[in-house]
Design goal:
- It is built from 20 helices and 16 strands.
- The protein is of the alpha/beta class.
- The protein folds into two domains: about 130 residues, 2-Layer Sandwich (Chitobiase, domain 2); about 375 residues, TIM Barrel.
- α2 links the parallel β2 and β3.
- It is globular.
- It binds acetamide.
- The site of acetamide has 5 residues, from loops.
Length: about 550
């Protein structure tokens, strides 16, 4: 006997599909858009016999990724699929071929390219490296669509590779503590939109968030108990690697260092005592670059961190040193006079050179904010520009490599379309010679955490960071704002399926504000209001 519910289900499905199909032209849903897409005739159906097979180079990372893909596909479609695909019936519906191993520690030079061919009988994903496979898997998942026949993937040929090699997201765990699960969720979301660097801002005036075994007082007194253990860090790095994401730690110095001085006032340029900073802004405390013991300390600390974080880059911050403690310290002033330094920028350059030597000794390359730019620094550093494309262009002209963050500050609460229009190769950088342009490695979205908590942070990052991800991955000509917004809405829903909470935390937060009453009227109000923009700018900060 026919089950009336199944007829109802079929009817609902068809109604749903009618909406899906009528609204949209041929445009695909991919975000970021691939370098090359050629639609073909046909459609691969996703059914309960869908299996994945792996061929060519194999490693646990690939097997785990195939398993996650099966799980996500099952969740996305509601079709029960087995996790394990080892006993794939031949032929498998998705055949994945990886040519060779990737880099033991992923670098900016890692090959992320892939090719995806979808036909009625089968889809083939081929890539030189596991990271390319990971990128292609995300594309495949985004291609899954629904029509009157059920879930499937329209036949297509995709050849894809990123436009920029460095596509990051900065997460600030200092201003508000961000527990490990929050970081992991965001790594999942980053992978979904092909971002490849987690820039982890681990110390600032308001908190020292990293366990040091050499100097345990740093986190004991500087963190209110909220810090990552070394085991946490290893876990996050491994989780990121599984998703083709590098982890670059930032320990901001010589400014933004109040939390260090709570336990180590001897490193500061004024006597102290110091307490963890509770306000937001730019503060006076700064390391004393004239002290030999500072460099001995940093050698120990950076050495310890360099062994823990495998990435070739080490971020030393370097931003927003107001120089007041230096101006008021007669010994520092005498030191500067003796060495013929003309101002605080020279003193900071001296500090940077010393820190660079330490970083190098521990096998690291240095990256810092654009204040570190100084003719005395060697050319193998990377400059992260937050003050404008002009400083990025200047750095590239002087022979430095650079990444852009100006225009990508998510905490300014600007619309996705604003960030989408900011291109690392436009404006001041457009006039650079080809060789100079090749020094621009990419960019990073920045999630400064003064005004977010673990509960709200997803709603600040997502989906807007996905617009930045497209800017950094897709060809420069991909610029249609309307198309971006349409795809962004879809990706945002997809990210919720990965555990992100930008949509799901909204209702419960409104309900709390209404003392657990019906929040519908408040939602009407909240939906028509816009947040204050650039809050940090209005405080004279950034
Ligand atoms: C910064 O926004 N001060 C890097």
């Amino acid at each position: 006997m026919e089950n009336p519910l199944s007829r109802l289900g079929a009817l609902m499905l068809m109604t749903l599909c009618a909406g899906v199909i009528s609204g949209e032209a041929q445009e695909n849903n991919l975000l970021p858009q691939p370098a090359q897409v050629s639609p073909r005739e046909g459609r691969l159906a996703i059914t309960d016999s869908f299996r994945i097979s792996l061929s060519g180079y194999q490693e646990p990372r690939l097997r785990a990724a195939a398993q996650r893909l099966a799980r996500r596909l099952a969740r996305q479609t509601g079709i029960a699929l087995p996790d394990r695909s080892e006993k794939a019936p031949s032929p498998a519906a998705l055949v994945i071929h990886c040519d060779h191993a990737g880099e033991p520690v992923q670098t900016v030079r890692e090959d992320e390219s892939y090719r995806l061919e979808v036909r009625t009988e089968q889809a083939r994903l081929t890539a030189p490296t596991p990271v390319g496979v990971l990128r292609g898997m995300e594309t495949f998942l985004q291609l899954v669509d629904l029509d009157t026949r059920g879930f499937g993937v329209a036949a297509v040929d995709i050849n894809d590779r990123p436009r920029f090699r460095w596509r990051g997201l900065l997460m600030d765990a200092s201003r508000h503590w961000m527990p490990v699960p929050v970081i992991k969720r965001n790594l999942d979301a980053m992978a979904a939109v092909k971002l490849n660097v987690l820039h982890w801002h681990l110390s600032d005036d308001q908190g020292f968030r990293m366990e040091s075994r050499r100097f345990p007082e740093l986190q004991r007194l500087g963190s209110d108990g909220n810090y990552y253990t070394q085991a946490d860090v290893r876990e996050v790095i491994a989780y990121a690697r599984e998703r083709g994401i590098r982890v670059v730690p930032e320990f901001d110095m010589p400014g933004h260092t109040t939390s260090w001085f709570v336990s180590h006032p001897e490193l500061a340029s004024a006597p102290g005592p110091y307490v963890i900073e509770r306000a937001w802004g730019i503060f006076d405390p700064a390391m004393n670059p004239t002290k030999a013991e500072l460099y001995a300390f940093l050698d120990g600390f950076i050495g310890e961190m360099a062994a823990l974080f495998p990435d070739e880059y080490f971020h030393i911050g370097g931003d927003e040193v107001n120089g007041k403690q230096w101006d008021h310290n007669p010994r520092i002033q005498a030191f500067m006079r003796r060495r013929g330094m003309k101002g605080n920028h020279d003193l900071q350059a001296y500090f940077n050179r010393r820190v660079l030597a330490i970083a190098r000794q521990h096998g690291k390359k240095m990256i810092g904010w654009d204040e570190i730019l100084h003719p005395e620094l060697p050319k193998d550093i990377v400059v992260q520009s937050w003050r404008g494309q002009k400083s990025l262009a200047e750095a590239a002209r002087q022979g430095y490599m650079g990444i852009l963050s100006f225009g990508y500050y998510l905490d300014h609460i600007l619309p996705a379309s604003f960030h989408y229009k900011v291109d690392p190769m436009e404006g001041e950088t457009a006039g650079l010679a080809e060789e100079q342009k090749s020094r621009i490695l990419g960019g990073e979205a920045c999630m400064w955490a003064e005004y977010v908590t673990p509960e709200t942070v997803a709603s600040r990052i997502w989906p807007r960071a996905a617009a930045i991800a497209e800017r950094l991955w897709s060809p420069q000509e991909v610029k249609d704002v309307e198309s971006m917004y349409r795809r962004l809405a879809r990706v945002s829903r997809q990210l919720e399926g990965l555990g992100l909470t930008q949509r799901s935390s909204y209702g419960p937060m409104l309900e709390r504000l209404t003392n657990m009453n019906d929040a519908a009227p408040l939602k009407v109000l909240a939906d028509v209001l816009e947040p204050v923009k650039s809050l940090r700018l209005s405080q004279g900060h950034r």
